[in-house]
């Protein structure tokens, strides 16, 4: 597919975009499909879709009422993600979800929350000359000091695992963080992933994430024609 950096598809069996869209329904369906914004809509459904951006076809579909959280249908990530690259927006931002994808043999790319201030524990790309030391510092402390186009580092994240027998265990792991400078705004676009640098370059990672918009175009087309 045009737009996918060369060599990416050779490493993954599929590239999947995950998203959801709210569909307005007739008021008579208010009981099984309550809307989240009842001031103007009484009934609404939420269509949760896993779409292949390679061929544009849906891989998995769930239909819930509009009040269901975006993450709920995908809380039990299984082996179906093995070998695939998953792309999603901040509605699915969850370190526990990222960990489950990784443990089931999948890869992911997610935007980083703007308020995230993760600890940098490793550096994947070295720059010549006098550069800002980043290891051991927090992201928000480092970004304003940089003049480079790309920051490619490892960061530490902590999260709570699903409760077992009423007890929730905490866990810590490292993920790769890539920040790419937007020349127009002067700001960094930050992403989290579990894909190692030798498999996908930082610049190509940002290009891959842009493919997530294919699922947005799918929803737009469905609403227009249906």
Outline of this structure?
With 226 residues, the chain is of the alpha+beta class.
Strand line-up in the sheet with most strands: 3-2-1-4-5-9-8-7-6
How is the main sheet built?
A: 9 strands, mixed
Gyration radius from CA atoms, angstroms: 19 Å
Kindly state the mean pLDDT as a whole number? 86
- What is the general shape? globular
Structural write-up:
The protein has 226 residues and is α+β, with helices and mostly antiparallel strands. It has helices at 8-11, 95-103, 139-142, 202-209, 213-225; strands at 14-24, 44-52, 58-65, 84-88, 107-111, 119-123, 150-160, 170-181, 188-193. The chain is globular, with a radius of gyration of 19 Å. Strands 3-2-1-4-5-9-8-7-6 form a nine-stranded mixed beta sheet, with helices on both faces.
Task: Write a concise keyword list for the protein shown above.
226 residues, alpha+beta, nine-stranded mixed sheet, 5 helices, 17% helix, globular
What is the strand and helix layout of this fold?
Layout: H1 8-11, E1 14-24, E2 44-52, E3 58-65, E4 84-88, H2 95-103, E5 107-111, E6 119-123, H3 139-142, E7 150-160, E8 170-181, E9 188-193, H4 202-209, H5 213-225
Parallel strand pairs: 1-4, 4-5
Antiparallel strand pairs: 1-2, 2-3, 5-9, 6-7, 7-8, 8-9
